[in-house]
Amino acid sequence: MTSSTFVQRDFAPRIANLGFSVDLPDSWQAQDLPEEEPAFDDATRLFGLAAVAAPYAAIILVASARPAFDEGTVQDWALWLIQQHQVQPSTLGPASLGDLPAILGQCAVQGDFGPMTMFFAFAEDGGRLLHLSLIGPDALAAHVFEVWQRVLASFRLAAPQGATVLLHAQPEVMTAAPGDDMTLPDISSFALAGGRATLEQTHPINQALLEQGKGFAPRIQAMDEDNGRAWVVSPALQAVLAVPLGWHLLDDSRRLLLLHPDSSVQISLEQLPAPEGDLQALLGRIEAQARADYPAPQCQRIASGATVGLAVFDIDDGAEPIAQLHLLVAGNAPETALRARVTTTREQAKMAGDLGEVLLYGIQFQMEFEPPAPDDDRPEWAREADALEAQDRLEEAEQAMRRGCDHIGVLMSIAHMYRRRMLRLAQAGDTAGAAHARSKAVEWAYSYAGSATSGGEGAALSMERDDFIRELGGQ
Length: 475
Known about the structure:
Blueprint (H helix, E strand, L loop, with lengths): L5 E6 L8 E6 L3 E2 L16 E7 L6 E8 L6 H11 L4 E9 L2 E12 L2 E12 L2 E10 L3 H14 L1 E2 L15 E3 L28 H8 L7 E6 L4 E6 L4 E6 L3 E4 L4 E4 L6 E8 L5 H15 L4 E7 L2 E10 L4 E10 L5 E9 L4 H13 L1 E3 L14 H11 L3 H11 L4 H19 L3 H19 L5 H18 L3
Parallel strand pairs: 11-18
Antiparallel strand pairs: 1-2, 2-10, 3-4, 4-5, 5-9, 6-7, 7-8, 8-9, 12-13, 13-14, 14-22, 15-16, 16-17, 17-21, 18-19, 19-20, 20-21
Helix pairs in contact: 6-7, 8-9, 9-10
């Protein structure tokens, strides 16, 4: 399906001065709602504010509201209402609906036309409980997800009054006990048996990852083999940092990845925007996304010196529960943060988290960074595809990549090609071209996740897809 043209739609208030606006595809049609009086003596009842449907498929957005309840948080109310309607959410957690703090979720629904997915949001404003839902067939999942992301970004109340209750219970922060040794270990203590070879592009694993479009091994600037460490140059971070020998490194220009040889630990280093330098607010957004992505994650805030973090346990990847640690320190530029996102098992979380923190503190920014310009040792199909894309011969570029690489990873490589195109066109002021490139990136990311051959692989590829789409940002 081609990318939609979105327009702002304004809806007049039907009760409680709840008028609102939201961006929707221009072809969607508002539906007539019955004329009825609100009946809130039934605590499960909500009053319809608007309904808008797609003309080409069973996709519909519904907005409704009721008075807020007397006790509890928005998350408490959302859970109770969901239970009353016998809905089993696959994800549920705090995020945002436009400018409103909100509880977002997702669930599977069996409709008349087959399996469907429903996205929903609950928010409170001035004692009014708002509910939005978007439902559509799984066959159009990419399009429904695109619309939902636009709804979340654009929703605005005409007369906001402000939140009067907590969105959810406030998290506890785990800090070091008095007397605990907070000294960071040396990077050398994390070295593995593979030595220098694992850092070089010629290593078979690094070559295979390159063929799959995952990224390049960064240039080695200095080596200390006796102490099991090296310093590498990262274009993604625009910095030099110390790393342990025996691990695999990949730089895809967006982030630097450190991979354990047996794939039991993955550490992603990247720069993130942090408005006003507020690391706790950034952690809140990361936690909200984690709660929206996973059915029942266990979240724990962490504070250690200049590092703040979030530990997310009991993430189901389809094989065994995994853990993620999100560690943040202030970035080199104003209103930025450095994040080490650690993915591993719960048993290895302490070791991997320590390594993530050591990596963060070892980053040395270069004021005038110039990425290295080695010989282009990418596969021929990758160079051919780049040349075709630069000439706007997009279908030929896609075909060149699929001919040249017989691996499902090439589908994500195509998605990354469109991401680079999106950024280039946006910088040049071509908003329409950038929007088209973004839609193609999303489309290929969904194709990649849909190519999994097992449940465990499907969960892992879906996580990668969702991370990729989040990093694309809004249109």
